Amino acid sequence: MVKNTETPSRSTKSFLCIPTLTPTLHRLTVIQYHDVDATDNDVKGIFSMFLRVFHEIRMHEDLAMGEIYIIDLERIKFSVISRLTPILFKKVGFVLEKIHSSRMHALYFYKAPTVFHSALLLFKSFLPKKLSDRVHSYQTLDEIKKHVPVELLPCDYGGQQKSIKELQSLWKQKIFEYKNRFDLLETMKVDESLRPDKLKNDEILGYYGNFKKIDTD
């Protein structure tokens, strides 16, 4: 492995886990975009950071039957939405289907602006039906409370948990416990010089690839 001088942002302002599991033993995660700075709208970076930080820690400490996400888009900037490209949606869909399909129990977008609805339909088109049916968009807390127990929501959303600010502070403390590990991960990348050369066809050793039988009339 060799060091990578590029160090992505490790801000935790937009992500927090609820410490209490749901009655069905799912973990609730709340994601907000109002703290994402206008000069730091790299959506791909935010998504990859979320996966690395959240699941790196929880892989060691958490046990849950699945994931429930609430993504608050009330104050999302248009500059963020404009970066939601089909290629990005396809990559996110691949991760959810191939890696986290058994873990995502539900995904709720809250107060998404009208301009986001087309992007949401595009995003769902890249998901298999079983995952697409788990993605919803709601404009009121009453709609979300039909699916998420009130005692698990932050008090900012009329729930019984600590405020978002307090929960973020607790989560930041947890991340700093793993500081050395994240510092190491952020400076590592693949050393391509160690990658084996591609196999070559040879009349004696044989030919590589897939061969299918073709029936002809």
TrEMBL record:
GO molecular function list: phosphatidylinositol bisphosphate binding
Pfam families linked: CRAL_TRIO
InterPro entries named among the record's database cross-references: CRAL-TRIO_dom (IPR001251), CRAL-TRIO_dom_sf (IPR036865)
Domain annotation CRAL-TRIO: ranges: 46-165
Domain of life: Eukaryota
GO cellular component labels: membrane
PANTHER family: ALPHA-TOCOPHEROL TRANSFER PROTEIN-RELATED (PTHR10174), GH10083P-RELATED (PTHR10174:SF222)
This protein's name: CRAL-TRIO domain-containing protein
